[in-house]
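We treat protein structure as text, and this decision shapes the records that our systems exchange. The remainder of this section carries one protein's record, kept here as part of the documentation:
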Amino acid sequence: MQVTLGIASNGLWKDVMGVSLLQSLCSFPYDSCPASPRGPHIDENREVIVRQAMDAKSDVLLFVDTDMAWPVHSLGDLLIQSLLPGQDIVGAAYNEKRLPKVSTVKMFDQDGGIFVGIKEVPRQPFKCAAVGAGFMAINLHRLVECWPDGPYFEFGAQHGLAREGEDVHFSLEAAKHGLTVWCDPRIVVHHIGDFAF
Protein backbone atom coordinates (compact mmCIF):
# COMPACT_ATOMS: atom_id res chain seq x y z
CA MET A 1 0.00 0.00 0.00
CA GLN A 2 1.25 3.47 -0.91
CA VAL A 3 0.45 6.33 1.48
CA THR A 4 1.07 10.04 0.94
CA LEU A 5 1.69 11.90 4.15
CA GLY A 6 0.48 15.45 3.53
CA ILE A 7 1.74 18.24 5.76
CA ALA A 8 0.35 21.63 4.78
CA SER A 9 2.93 23.99 6.25
CA ASN A 10 3.58 27.69 6.55
CA GLY A 11 7.08 26.75 7.71
CA LEU A 12 6.34 26.65 11.44
CA TRP A 13 6.17 23.21 13.06
CA LYS A 14 5.37 22.47 16.68
CA ASP A 15 8.09 20.33 18.25
CA VAL A 16 5.55 17.85 19.59
CA MET A 17 4.18 17.34 16.08
CA GLY A 18 7.62 16.38 14.81
CA VAL A 19 8.08 13.94 17.68
CA SER A 20 4.62 12.41 17.08
CA LEU A 21 5.40 12.02 13.38
CA LEU A 22 8.81 10.40 13.94
CA GLN A 23 7.43 7.97 16.52
CA SER A 24 4.57 6.99 14.20
CA LEU A 25 6.79 6.47 11.17
CA CYS A 26 9.23 4.24 13.09
CA SER A 27 6.55 1.56 13.29
CA PHE A 28 4.52 2.48 10.19
CA PRO A 29 4.14 -0.69 8.07
CA TYR A 30 3.31 0.99 4.73
CA ASP A 31 5.31 2.71 2.02
CA SER A 32 4.92 6.42 2.58
CA CYS A 33 6.00 9.46 0.66
CA PRO A 34 5.88 12.98 2.07
CA ALA A 35 4.17 15.94 0.44
CA SER A 36 4.79 19.20 2.26
CA PRO A 37 4.42 22.34 0.17
CA ARG A 38 5.21 25.47 2.09
CA GLY A 39 3.24 28.67 1.79
CA PRO A 40 0.90 31.05 3.60
CA HIS A 41 -2.35 29.69 2.12
CA ILE A 42 -3.57 26.44 3.71
CA ASP A 43 -6.14 25.80 0.98
CA GLU A 44 -3.53 26.04 -1.79
CA ASN A 45 -1.11 23.83 0.14
CA ARG A 46 -3.77 21.16 0.64
CA GLU A 47 -4.72 21.31 -3.06
CA VAL A 48 -1.07 20.77 -4.08
CA ILE A 49 -0.83 17.82 -1.69
CA VAL A 50 -3.90 16.12 -3.19
CA ARG A 51 -2.44 16.50 -6.70
CA GLN A 52 0.94 15.13 -5.57
CA ALA A 53 -0.75 12.14 -3.91
CA MET A 54 -2.70 11.41 -7.09
CA ASP A 55 0.45 11.72 -9.23
CA ALA A 56 2.23 9.30 -6.87
CA LYS A 57 -0.67 6.82 -7.34
CA SER A 58 -1.09 6.60 -3.58
CA ASP A 59 -3.92 4.58 -2.09
CA VAL A 60 -4.48 6.87 0.88
CA LEU A 61 -3.68 10.48 1.69
CA LEU A 62 -3.06 11.22 5.37
CA PHE A 63 -3.20 14.89 6.33
CA VAL A 64 -1.41 15.89 9.53
CA ASP A 65 -1.12 19.55 10.43
CA THR A 66 1.98 21.04 12.00
CA ASP A 67 0.10 21.90 15.20
CA MET A 68 -1.15 18.39 15.99
CA ALA A 69 0.22 15.77 18.40
CA TRP A 70 -0.85 12.15 18.80
CA PRO A 71 0.09 8.79 20.35
CA VAL A 72 2.12 6.42 18.20
CA HIS A 73 -0.87 4.26 17.11
CA SER A 74 -3.23 7.08 16.05
CA LEU A 75 -1.84 7.55 12.53
CA GLY A 76 -2.25 3.83 11.74
CA ASP A 77 -5.74 3.80 13.28
CA LEU A 78 -6.74 6.70 11.03
CA LEU A 79 -5.39 4.92 7.94
CA ILE A 80 -7.25 1.68 8.74
CA GLN A 81 -10.56 3.51 9.20
CA SER A 82 -10.27 5.10 5.74
CA LEU A 83 -9.98 1.65 4.16
CA LEU A 84 -13.26 0.37 5.61
CA PRO A 85 -16.10 0.17 3.09
CA GLY A 86 -18.22 3.31 3.10
CA GLN A 87 -15.71 5.45 5.02
CA ASP A 88 -14.10 7.45 2.23
CA ILE A 89 -12.96 10.41 4.31
CA VAL A 90 -12.23 9.98 8.02
CA GLY A 91 -11.07 12.51 10.55
CA ALA A 92 -10.48 12.60 14.27
CA ALA A 93 -12.51 14.65 16.74
CA TYR A 94 -10.53 17.60 18.05
CA ASN A 95 -11.26 21.17 19.07
CA GLU A 96 -10.50 24.46 17.39
CA LYS A 97 -7.80 26.52 19.07
CA ARG A 98 -10.09 28.83 21.01
CA LEU A 99 -12.24 29.03 24.09
CA PRO A 100 -14.94 28.12 24.77
CA LYS A 101 -14.15 24.77 23.18
CA VAL A 102 -15.66 24.21 19.74
CA SER A 103 -15.28 20.91 17.88
CA THR A 104 -13.99 20.82 14.31
CA VAL A 105 -16.65 18.16 13.63
CA LYS A 106 -19.78 19.67 12.06
CA MET A 107 -23.27 18.27 11.71
CA PHE A 108 -26.26 19.52 9.72
CA ASP A 109 -29.06 21.24 11.60
CA GLN A 110 -32.57 19.74 11.69
CA ASP A 111 -33.47 21.36 8.36
CA GLY A 112 -30.38 20.01 6.60
CA GLY A 113 -29.14 23.57 6.26
CA ILE A 114 -26.21 25.36 7.78
CA PHE A 115 -24.10 23.00 9.84
CA VAL A 116 -23.65 23.47 13.54
CA GLY A 117 -20.81 22.46 15.83
CA ILE A 118 -21.16 19.26 17.79
CA LYS A 119 -21.36 19.57 21.57
CA GLU A 120 -21.23 15.93 22.65
CA VAL A 121 -19.18 13.64 20.45
CA PRO A 122 -20.48 10.05 20.18
CA ARG A 123 -18.13 7.29 21.33
CA GLN A 124 -18.20 5.27 18.09
CA PRO A 125 -17.45 6.31 14.48
CA PHE A 126 -20.27 8.35 12.95
CA LYS A 127 -21.17 10.08 9.69
CA CYS A 128 -20.93 13.85 9.80
CA ALA A 129 -21.26 16.88 7.56
CA ALA A 130 -17.62 17.92 7.93
CA VAL A 131 -14.49 17.09 9.85
CA GLY A 132 -11.24 18.99 10.32
CA ALA A 133 -8.40 18.21 7.91
CA GLY A 134 -5.73 18.58 10.60
CA PHE A 135 -5.80 14.80 11.11
CA MET A 136 -7.66 13.29 8.16
CA ALA A 137 -7.42 10.24 5.88
CA ILE A 138 -8.77 10.21 2.32
CA ASN A 139 -9.26 7.04 0.32
CA LEU A 140 -7.76 8.25 -2.98
CA HIS A 141 -9.27 5.47 -5.08
CA ARG A 142 -12.73 6.65 -4.04
CA LEU A 143 -11.80 10.31 -4.51
CA VAL A 144 -10.58 9.68 -8.07
CA GLU A 145 -13.62 7.51 -8.82
CA CYS A 146 -16.23 9.99 -7.55
CA TRP A 147 -14.55 13.38 -7.95
CA PRO A 148 -11.57 13.16 -10.30
CA ASP A 149 -11.10 16.81 -11.23
CA GLY A 150 -11.47 19.05 -8.16
CA PRO A 151 -10.64 21.69 -7.11
CA TYR A 152 -10.77 20.07 -3.69
CA PHE A 153 -9.65 22.59 -1.11
CA GLU A 154 -10.76 26.20 -1.24
CA PHE A 155 -12.50 28.52 1.15
CA GLY A 156 -16.27 28.27 0.83
CA ALA A 157 -19.37 30.35 1.32
CA GLN A 158 -19.85 33.09 3.87
CA HIS A 159 -22.15 32.16 6.80
CA GLY A 160 -22.89 35.29 8.79
CA LEU A 161 -19.53 36.65 9.94
CA ALA A 162 -17.64 33.39 9.40
CA ARG A 163 -16.27 32.00 6.16
CA GLU A 164 -16.50 28.25 5.60
CA GLY A 165 -13.03 26.79 6.16
CA GLU A 166 -11.22 24.88 3.42
CA ASP A 167 -11.70 21.56 5.22
CA VAL A 168 -15.42 22.13 5.81
CA HIS A 169 -15.82 23.13 2.17
CA PHE A 170 -13.95 19.99 1.08
CA SER A 171 -16.20 17.75 3.20
CA LEU A 172 -19.42 19.32 1.92
CA GLU A 173 -18.31 19.15 -1.72
CA ALA A 174 -17.08 15.57 -1.30
CA ALA A 175 -20.53 14.54 -0.06
CA LYS A 176 -22.12 16.18 -3.13
CA HIS A 177 -19.88 13.94 -5.27
CA GLY A 178 -21.01 10.77 -3.47
CA LEU A 179 -18.18 10.41 -0.92
CA THR A 180 -18.90 9.71 2.73
CA VAL A 181 -17.43 11.78 5.55
CA TRP A 182 -16.86 10.16 8.94
CA CYS A 183 -15.45 11.04 12.31
CA ASP A 184 -13.78 8.41 14.46
CA PRO A 185 -13.74 9.82 18.01
CA ARG A 186 -11.65 6.86 19.25
CA ILE A 187 -8.58 8.27 17.48
CA VAL A 188 -6.60 10.31 19.99
CA VAL A 189 -5.15 13.60 18.73
CA HIS A 190 -4.39 16.98 20.31
CA HIS A 191 -4.59 20.40 18.65
CA ILE A 192 -1.63 22.30 20.06
CA GLY A 193 -1.74 26.03 20.72
CA ASP A 194 -0.49 27.65 23.87
CA PHE A 195 -2.01 24.55 25.49
CA ALA A 196 -3.73 21.42 24.13
CA PHE A 197 -7.31 22.15 23.02
Summary: DSSP finds five helices and 13 strands in the chain. The domain at 2-191 is CATH 3.90.550.40 (Spore Coat Polysaccharide Biosynthesis Protein SpsA; Chain A). The chain has a mean pLDDT of 90.
